[in-house]
Write a structure and sequence with these properties.
Strand order of the largest sheet: 2-1-5-3-4
CATH topology of the largest domain: Ubiquitin-like (UB roll)
Helix content: 25-40%
Distance between the termini: 58 Å
Shape: elongated
Number of strands: 5
CATH architecture of the largest domain: Roll
CATH superfamily of the largest domain: Beta-grasp domain
Oligomer: single chain
Length: 171
């Protein structure tokens, strides 16, 4: 089946099997390997990309369902090869990654979140990213990175406390 998909600004007309998942199309057909295959069950979010500006887990979409769409992967997010997207730069500045496996999907989900909520609270960030799992960071610095990318000072966020820790305020 022939599909026409624009990926990272580049149009692609490709013959695909009807059962081919979008994540495999991006990785295996187009060679865009920042989109990771984590669980194949839509539980982890490592495969998150933007489809027409919305964050989508690409393991839940058949390539034929993406026909006619505009897809952005982590490779297409930066304005140039020498410049990080503001979200990726915030992840680096706030140390929002460790092993890096979840990072591409987490960054894409965070970009989608800020499209919907340009100045989210800490709770909205946690809620907005709950479909993306990270086994290394504990999420605290990821939340800080999203707040920073939204133009907010993560040190000024009144409710930015790692789960299970107290602020000492008694509230």
């Amino acid at each position: 089946m022939k599909v026409h998909i624009t990926v990272n600004g580049v149009p692609a007309d490709t013959d695909v099997e009807p059962r081919l998942l979008l994540v495999h199309y991006l990785r295996d057909t187009l060679g865009l390997t920042a989109t990771n295959v984590g669980c194949d069950t839509s539980s982890c979010g490592a495969c998150t990309v933007l489809v027409d500006g919305e964050s989508v887990k690409s393991c839940t979409v058949l390539t034929v369902q993406a026909d006619g769409t505009d897809i952005t992967t982590l490779e297409g997010l930066s304005p140039s090869p020498d410049e990080l997207h503001p979200m990726a730069a915030a992840f680096r500045q706030e140390h929002g990654l460790q092993c890096g496996f979840c990072t591409p999907g987490m960054v894409m989900a965070a970009v989608g979140l800020l499209e919907e909520h340009p100045r989210p609270t800490e709770r909205e960030v946690r809620e907005g990213l709950k479909g993306n799992l990270c086994r290394c960071t504990g999420y605290h610095n990821i939340v800080r990175a999203v707040l920073r990318a939204s133009g907010q000072d993560p040190d000024a966020a009144p409710d930015l406390v790692a789960p299970g820790f107290s602020t000492g305020s008694g509230t």
